[in-house]
Fold each of these.
Amino acid sequence: MTHRKAPDSSRRSEASRRAIYAAALALVGETGYAKTTIEGIAARAGVGKQTIYRWWPSKAAVLLDAFLDLVEQAADRAAEPAIPDTGDLEADLKLVLRATVDELNDPAYDAPARALAAESVVDARLAAEFVSRLLEPQLQLYVKRLTAARETGQIRAGTDPRIALELLVGPLAHRWLLRTLPLTHDYADALVDCALYGLAPRGAPRA
Amino acid sequence: MTHRKAPDSSRRSEASRRAIYAAALALVGETGYAKTTIEGIAARAGVGKQTIYRWWPSKAAVLLDAFLDLVEQAADRAAEPAIPDTGDLEADLKLVLRATVDELNDPAYDAPARALAAESVVDARLAAEFVSRLLEPQLQLYVKRLTAARETGQIRAGTDPRIALELLVGPLAHRWLLRTLPLTHDYADALVDCALYGLAPRGAPRA
Amino acid sequence: MTHRKAPDSSRRSEASRRAIYAAALALVGETGYAKTTIEGIAARAGVGKQTIYRWWPSKAAVLLDAFLDLVEQAADRAAEPAIPDTGDLEADLKLVLRATVDELNDPAYDAPARALAAESVVDARLAAEFVSRLLEPQLQLYVKRLTAARETGQIRAGTDPRIALELLVGPLAHRWLLRTLPLTHDYADALVDCALYGLAPRGAPRA
Amino acid sequence: MTHRKAPDSSRRSEASRRAIYAAALALVGETGYAKTTIEGIAARAGVGKQTIYRWWPSKAAVLLDAFLDLVEQAADRAAEPAIPDTGDLEADLKLVLRATVDELNDPAYDAPARALAAESVVDARLAAEFVSRLLEPQLQLYVKRLTAARETGQIRAGTDPRIALELLVGPLAHRWLLRTLPLTHDYADALVDCALYGLAPRGAPRA
DNA sequence: CGGTAAGCGAGACGGTACGTCATGTCTTAAC
DNA sequence: GTTAAGACATGACGTACCGTCTCGCTTACCG
């Protein structure tokens, strides 16, 4: 086994790490992910290339850490990690989906998030990281709220919260990723309505 | 304005075009999109680089044409361009979604389709092409079937077929793109059930 | 056998070749061989690095060709390829050795010649090229003149012209390479005297 | 003026110094001077890089000290620091030149000596050190013996011992450095003969 | 005899150059 | 006039060393 010897992370330069995050996010925002190069990040951060290669295996990995850092910084400021439970599931979901729509429309998030999503589509390794560190924690909030809703009878007894959540989030992601149609609050509301009450007429018998 | 002189497409070599498609699909399948290069495609196709640059603006554009060609070949063989209408919407949708699941799980389609999707996420220009030439024709089949269903009362009167379709297709795409969970027939069925009959208990009053 | 495919030299850019020679000689003269880099030569010549790597295996090989070109240009202008034969061997040799001293003291020749000599000392492959293409042709002039001298009785019958030539050229090279003492016309003269008439007193019996 | 503070050599680690010498000589012998790096020497010696940079200004300086140490060790064992004076100059010189030939053909000396010579050709600073510490002491032995020879009439009265010595040593160095022809005992003998008795026929009048 | 300051092994750092690869443009010869 | 072939300028890749620096640690000297 010829593992490359792991660097000693206790000696790691915090200043360089932060400069690299800032440079990566700035460049992806300004010139796009494809035109962002590791050399460019290093130059912008005032850092040697090797300092990047020492700590990250790829451009995508740098950006993932940078983006996670950005998200955590924002989360620390906002500090509201759960979906509210007012008892009115429909209202609670609309609130959250509207917030998600706003976030996806925010240019500061859009560029790096798209880049990471695109890389994940094509790179299963990165996808696993992306999902487990960024996406899944968010989805678990839905799981929690929907499980609570099931217990109080707000949603049908047999429903799998995982599938329920995807019914809400999947269409949103679809529009965002492929830009088929604009992402609006109205769309978020319509999605919640359809998902909760179904496409079939209320009176229709269950098949 | 110095427009590059448009090549004379009547003199274009059909053999080269087909060889390029085959080479592009083969290389993307074998080594992945990122490692596939225009030089590599040219070499594999036994073609000069310029022949590619003359007719396509980018690697992604080559692959898009190649993939469309592949899809059309397959469609010509199968020749079943519409979603069936047996009167039983639930059954019809499950049939189609199961078929879609099978297609997405087919390695011959997976690699190029992923690559095109990923590029589209990040390149709005390509996305427009990808959507209009590949995705939208497929989605229109749903629009048609759902519109018919609305007219016969199989789905609620006010429903927007576009949103209805995304409720079905969005979650599928989500799982496929980010590989969060496996894509199975059961999942397709569950999606149709949830979408048609809603998450909320049948007895619940419409909000 | 995995030979790297040989490039097609009929398509080679003459302009690039000349620019590379000029850049290489200029940089070696200005900053020294050690600080001269292939990137630097390429940049100065307005040429891609690959154009250098395509045609030469190393920095030293570039410089050798550049220097040979320089020497040939100069030789074309001077066009006096042989050691004169006035019948007076001593005078002829002093003339040539003084000219060699002047050449070695000329800064335009000194820098690249030193660099090539130094590399040759350490790289046997290069040394073979250096010797056969640059040094040996010059030494053959001595061989010719000394052989003629032997036939006319100007030097002893049994003498090996090769050794005779090294007796003259070796000490010159020694002073030049290691800069032990200055290289002057007087030194050249003294060398010829010693070599021709020997260190031992004229009257001394041959051992 | 910001002189770098001189390190306290009384605290210097003798073990490290010796390990560095051994590593330097070993690496130059095994992989050649060009591929020998300071990092490599440090790693092989089990020493921090700074320990090398603290005490030596360059790779060449390390190797010079290492080689001098090697030569001194050998000299301490052999302990015969002068050219013999049996009264027969020719025999004495042949003895010494043959010994020099053997030394230059010894692989243990060849690699580092070549490297130092090559660096000296190109780096005047190092050359001065190389000459004064290694070469000159050896040449002075010739000066001494040749001066004695002049006093006893074994060589011509007006002869400069410096030039005489170079007549012997220069050609040897020439063959060794550029590997033009093999270095043999016969060659050493021929050199002494030519240098002592001259190229011109014995009967020829002095010019 | 305990404090402190040096040398030390280790290795992260900002850099520079390496030699390779692919880009997109250009030129040439063959058809 | 398109084609296969491939040289060209450009520029990023990922690696290797450079020489400097900062960490703890040992180790001697000195107050």
Amino acid sequence: MKKASIKDIARIAGVSVATVSYVLNKKEGQRISVETKKKIFEVAETINYTPNRMARSLKNNRTKLLGLIVADISNEFYSTIARNLEDNALKLGYTLIIGSSDENAEKFEKLIELFSQQQVDGMIVAPVAGSEDSLLKLLNKNYPVVTIDRYLKGVNVPGIIVNNREIAERTTSILLEKDFDKIIYVGYDTKLQHLLDRQQGFDASISESNKNIAVERIKVGLDNITEEIHNQLANALGQNPKNTALYLSSNKLAVAGLSYLIKNNIKVPQDVSVLAFDETEAYKLFPTEISYVKQPLEQMTDEAIKLLDLQINEYSNTSKKIILSGDLIIKKSIK
Amino acid sequence: MKKASIKDIARIAGVSVATVSYVLNKKEGQRISVETKKKIFEVAETINYTPNRMARSLKNNRTKLLGLIVADISNEFYSTIARNLEDNALKLGYTLIIGSSDENAEKFEKLIELFSQQQVDGMIVAPVAGSEDSLLKLLNKNYPVVTIDRYLKGVNVPGIIVNNREIAERTTSILLEKDFDKIIYVGYDTKLQHLLDRQQGFDASISESNKNIAVERIKVGLDNITEEIHNQLANALGQNPKNTALYLSSNKLAVAGLSYLIKNNIKVPQDVSVLAFDETEAYKLFPTEISYVKQPLEQMTDEAIKLLDLQINEYSNTSKKIILSGDLIIKKSIK
DNA sequence: CTGAAAGCGCTTACAG
DNA sequence: CTGAAAGCGCTTACAG
């Protein structure tokens, strides 16, 4: 069964397609008689007309589609972002196309390519390591784009940035005031700048301090996080850790790290204090309430859509960066 | 800067748009000279040509877009499904558009409408209560659609179904064999059939059994789950629960229920045994490993895409239902 | 108040 | 081996 078009409406209503188009789009200025209007709406209703946005897009050069590229949509952090973006996008009449890059620059590039072909009006992307060229290509084409969660050094694309370095530095200082014997930072072996920023913030805080404290840094790859962390934590914590602090620098690392503590029956905060980056539902099931750095996800997504919409509508070639901060939510996991 | 089109390529290469189209689409049958081909590819490269899929769609009646409607993309269950679908879709050349219905029939209808307008080739939907009409409309238009996770009674639309009733019945029986004094089923106050099926399975198992066991059913609304469950569990479990079993019938309910247990320091499984429906990362942080019903998510999404692709390509008006089962993963939370 | 016509960027049957 | 032309479903400046 062929879909009804405005041609069909025009034929049945005995008017021109132009008139149908004007009426359905409720354009002012063109004065169409009330009867004609009524007739057209009736016909549209009875033949079950659904406008074809793709045809409109071809004329308008606007698809009302937005592309979102994250590392992995099944990661709670990104699915929460996606949800916020969805709501914001819908308010402005946009629909979201979503893709996961798996931290793979080639896949990232393919998604960009695919979304361009689908003629999305703009993209919100969490760039992966090595995606400089893909982003620059978009910039050169003047394609509206906003980075989120991450940024690439030396690529001047508009984006929402969280001051990870400062947050890490500040929160580490808070740990340092507590007179722990040992502090362990759990991070990634990565080239992602926003994660390096966290490590640098941690390092800066440590070297500024004149405390006599043992410092250990654990770095894990992206695969097999749980196993790697469990092994490395076993070494770093030893059999019977005391007066130790653990800085878990992402939600994934937090879940992996905490699962080690729970398995090995290590008391939080009595023996090991914990500070995590990012929130996760999972904290609810841990015996001790977890202290964490809360990123301003809602603000991030609000600003991202705004910044993107601006570029789309103004054709303006901004390179604006919006820098946001995070809050430290102190709970019982720090003694 | 205007985007390059095949017209531009044709002009620069000194050939017709038809030829360009044939070459870029690598159509066989039309024999184009090697030089012409080479020239066209070169020009396309230098002017940075990106094909416009929307224009192609208009001719083809195929957008290669698939709509996915879930209750909430930020729910781990659905984001996992989304991720699986994304991967499967990509393999077949489709891109996913995602929307969250919030269990709201109006919003569901709006998303369907929106996706139709975007001319998605097909939809994968988790229908909400009261969405019968929306689904029937799609069916009448012969729109390719597959339901997932849920189904609506009396609406004969193709879908992937999990035999929730049987699973609940079977797993409840396993609990009943353990000679608990009391068993508490935590479910939703809902009209969603797949959730009612779970309750009915539970009920059936209880009434078949001739055990003398106290049974309590807790039903919570969709909002404020955590608070509601905590209150009701406080009543149902009392101060000092012993030899009790808890059936938590979804991942959200599991997190809410387990968080009550952890807060109140109730020993699992010594005092309260726990069986949950669905998996969640959060289990990793609970002191006792949780036994749960694992739904075959991968199989669900594989079959969903297959079933949808079939409808899209064959124009076949199937009403096929694929019924899958779940596995009970027994861990230490059941004594 | 309404319509004829051009055009958005493609594809494809047909002709040569 | 290649091109002219129609057409997908819309929008919109222009004419009347």
